[in-house]
Amino acid sequence: MTINSQTVLLGLIGNPAKHSLSPLIHNGIFQQRSMNAAYLCFEVQPKDLKPAVSSLRSLGAKGFNLTIPYKEKVLSLLDEVSEDARLIKAVNTVKNQGGRLVGYNTDGPGFIDSLKLKGRFSPREKNVCILGAGGAAKAVSFCLCKEEAASVSIYDLERARAEALARGLRKLFKKTRIVVLDAKEQMSARTNLLVNATGVGMKERDPALFDAAFLERFPGLLVYDLIYAPAQPPLLKEAQKARLPVMNGLWMLIYQALRALTIWFERDDFLRLGDFCYNLLPEQEVEKR
Ligand code: NAP
Predict the structure, then answer these.
(1) Which residues contact 132 (CB under 8 A, 6 or more apart)?
(2) Do 144 and 113 touch, CB atoms closer than 8 A?
(3) Exposure of 223 by Cβ count < 10 A (0-12 exposed, 13-18 middle, 19+ buried)?
(4) From residue 217, how far is each of 122, 191, 200, 266 by CA, in Å?
(5) pLDDT of residue 282
(6) CB within 6 Å of ligand 1 — which residues?
(7) Contact at 8 Å (CB) between 271 and 264?
(8) From residue 245, how far is each of 9, 12, 55 by CA, in Å?
């Protein structure tokens, strides 16, 4: 990749940000497609979010992503926000349109793309159970309802959080039945897709949220863990023991990036690059099997 006076600047604002896999994905694509663009990581302190956003605008960056803890905080710094991002109340992608900053959320659409393109799973009229009711669960459940899932059941340790998410979804979507579970074991026998949207499984000693013996009661269940490090979180190991299909969060990470590129460059051919991106990631990240 040659950097010159015409190089298009893109990047990620977060804290932490230096561990991110996003530069590997974006710069790998720029190289493969001979695009004169570069994607950098900016680890920004909370007090510097506003000047950082404003600097990227004035420096003429084409756009940027946001990660923890800025997806909500950035909303008030933008000129315009897409309807979906406004309803989810989180932005992970910003496009600089001649000095106007427009916010989008590609997390949910990236999750749906990954399901359809890699999991060969269409959520329409399916029953979904989501563990966790935080930021990721919000984006994912919103898009599952948009795709007209038959039901979305939500379980969070803090029931009030699951109820608040359910109330918001019920107001927006009439075709999907929204259920709040008192215990994760109440997951319906008719569940087609289980999504772990908690952080349980990221730490080395975390337990599996369900064991293989429990999961065996759900033949054909697709088990999707939004965690991507480790690549095989405990829930997925148990699901594999139960011979169930599994997906990890690398696929959502990849497709949210491809969706962001689609917005920045106004081209839809990026969505074909899922496998190419997966192969760009280092061996230890993907635990290639
Ligand atoms: P978050 O806002 O902290 O939400 C997680 C929610 O799960 C919290 O409400 C938490 O409650 C709850 N929870 C914790 N343990 C639980 C359990 N045993 N059972 C039920 N609920 C439980 O986190 P987030 O930002 O939504 O992220 C969630 C996960 O998604 C993380 O692993 C993150 O890395 C992943 N993620 C992946 C991608 C991707 O592209 N693949 C994108 C975004 C996020 P407490 O707060 O009380 O613990």
Answers:
(1) 155, 156, 196, 197, 198, 199
(2) no
(3) buried
(4) 22, 11, 22, 45
(5) 80
(6) 107, 131-137, 155-158, 161, 197-200, 202, 226-228, 249, 252-253, 256
(7) no
(8) 38, 32, 45
The rounded distance, in Å, linking the Cα atoms of 116 and 122 is: 6
pLDDT above 80: residue 88: yes
Q: In angstroms, rounded to a whole number, what is the distance separating the alpha carbons of residues 47 and 171? A: 35
Give whole-number Cα distances, 32 to 49, 91, 264, 284, in Å.
32, 28, 17, 22
Q: Give tens-digit pLDDT for 198-246.
A: 999 999 899 999 999 999 999 999 999 999 999 999 999 999 999 999 9
Task: Name the active-site residue from 71, 95, 146, 184.
Answer: 71
Q: Exposure pattern of 6-23 as b/e (b: 16+ CB <10 Å)?
A: eebbbbbbbbebeebbbb
Taking CA atoms only, the protein residue closest to ligand 1 atom 34 is 227
Q: Which helix (H) or strand (E) holds 80?
A: strand 80-81
Smallest CA separation from ligand 1 atom 2, residue = 134
203 included as an active-site residue = no
Percent of all residues in the chain with a pLDDT value above 90, rounded to a whole number:
94
C-alpha of residue 227 to centroid of ligand 1, in Å:
9
Nearest ligand 1 atom to alpha carbon 228: 41
Of 183, 189, 182, nearest to 127 by C-alpha is 189
Sheet (strand 93-97) strand order: 37-43, 8-14, 63-66, 93-97, 100-104, 80-81
